[in-house]
């Protein structure tokens, strides 16, 4: 079957989901859900550090973006099927408009290198330092970051187990297109706004 021209978009090009973690001024954590996230290589000459980094594009103005700008550091925590109801909630409910947004919270741990909140239930957590912000359009900004620290569930580091078997245990969640969540093995996990209904009170 021939290909046809469609609108310029990213359906069927899945994006991995992350919960970005920052501290609010009162010392409590804030988490937001994002997926426009990929990797860069930083060099000593360009940014004062050498190694793998990330680029995180954040659209619209929101509390998480405010706090990333203010603090200059944040965490990126991989979203799994177990975390999806909470992640969907964090991605749907505005922190600016709902002061009690964090009434639902994961198990929060402090970063091992940076002063950022990380999520114990997430199998991979990166601690990121912003090295440059690029404004692309109104409300659309890219943050280039160094990975300063990273933690991973110990069993994922056991190279005696084949990589694909370790990968299957993670059960990460993708944003596959048409505002739906998809599992890493192709199962439909619901539309945006649906998984959070599994949380107490919200689904009642």
Overview of the structural elements:
- By secondary structure, the protein is mainly β.
- It has a single domain, classed as Electron Transport, Fmn-binding Protein, Chain A (Pnp Oxidase, Chain A, Roll), CATH 2.30.110.10.
- Helix content is 15%, strand content 40%.
- It contains four helices and 13 strands.
- The chain has helices at 44-47, 63-71, 84-92, 163-170, and strands spanning 15-16, 18-23, 29-34, 37-42, 51-59, 73-78, 108-110, 117-119, 124-137, 140-152, 173-177, 180-183, 188-191.
- The chain has a seven-stranded antiparallel sheet with strand order 3-2-6-9-10-5-4. Strands 1-11-12-13 form a four-stranded antiparallel sheet, with no helix packed on it. Strands 7-8 form a two-stranded antiparallel ribbon.
- The chain is globular and about 55 Å long.
Brief digest:
The chain has helices at 44-47, 63-71, 84-92, 163-170, and strands at residues 15-16, 18-23, 29-34, 37-42, 51-59, 73-78, 108-110, 117-119, 124-137, 140-152, 173-177, 180-183, 188-191.
């Amino acid at each position: 079957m021939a290909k046809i021209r469609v609108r310029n978009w990213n359906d069927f090009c899945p994006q991995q989901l992350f919960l970005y973690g920052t501290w609010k001024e009162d010392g409590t954590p804030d988490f937001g859900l994002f997926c426009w996230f990929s990797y860069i290589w930083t060099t000593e000459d360009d940014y004062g550090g050498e190694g793998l980094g990330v680029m995180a594009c954040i659209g619209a103005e929101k509390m998480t973006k405010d706090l990333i700008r203010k603090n200059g550091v944040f965490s990126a925590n991989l979203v799994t099927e177990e975390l999806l109801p909470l992640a969907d909630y964090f991605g749907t409910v505005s922190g600016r408009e709902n002061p009690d947004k964090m009434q639902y919270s994961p198990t929060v741990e402090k970063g091992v290198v940076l002063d950022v909140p990380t999520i114990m239930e997430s199998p991979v957590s990166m601690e990121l330092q912003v090295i440059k912000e690029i404004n692309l359009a109104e409300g659309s900004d890219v943050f280039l970051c160094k990975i300063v620290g990273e933690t991973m569930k110990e069993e994922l580091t056991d190279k005696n187990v084949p990589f694909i078997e370790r990968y299957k245990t993670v059960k990460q969640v993708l944003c596959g297109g048409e505002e739906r969540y998809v599992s890493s093995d192709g199962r439909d996990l619901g539309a945006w706004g649906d998984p959070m209904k599994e949380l107490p009170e919200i689904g009642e």
